[in-house]
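User: New here, any thoughts?
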Amino acid sequence: MKRSEMKKQTAFRDYNFSDAELYVWTKEVAALARKDGKYFAQQGFEEKHINAMERLAERFRECPTDDELVGDQMVFTEKKDDAAHDLRNAIRAIMNRVAMVYTNRTGRYRKFGTSKMGDMTDPQLIFCGRRVVRVARQQFDFLEESGLNEGHIRRVEDACSAFERSLNLQQDKVHDRDIGVENRTEIGNKVYQAFIIACNIGKDVWGKDQYAKYEKYVIYESNNEQKKRRKEQLKEESKE
């Protein structure tokens, strides 16, 4: 099996209103179903089903929102950017000393590979930091007269390790967000399915002859649907 075939499909929401509305409406329908309990029980939707729907709604409410997950991701991205800034400064401290001995056109200078460091991707910057440490130690005897010492090299080494850790943590938060959104979507869809079942039973119980009670179980998934329903209602009222 190809790796692409093994990848889990992205979950999509089965409803087109907000998560907050789904939660509130599910709680409202649960209360209605409990009030109409004997009629729902006749349809096979008993108290245990109402309780299960409410528990599912509470699980849904406890799921972290995308705003929370994005906020966590942003915090770790800021930390990662700060670590990248520290690493670049540590590298520049060495390269300033290298420039005192070699011009930037010499092979010894270019061997450090720090050209266009500000445009490097995160992985490229990590590789650059490691290369600077390695090359600086290789050329230490030639650079010692510039004031370069092991402390400068160790600073780059430590900054590189710190940046790599912060990058990994930031990527973990990116993945946490993907997983969180997927979990929330899956639970939300389960809540929605239970909600739809309860609403359909409620409509079946009361039928259109008990309009006021029937209407409580009607779902409008868009403003357009609300307008259509309202228009039909006005037409019916005008005939009376």
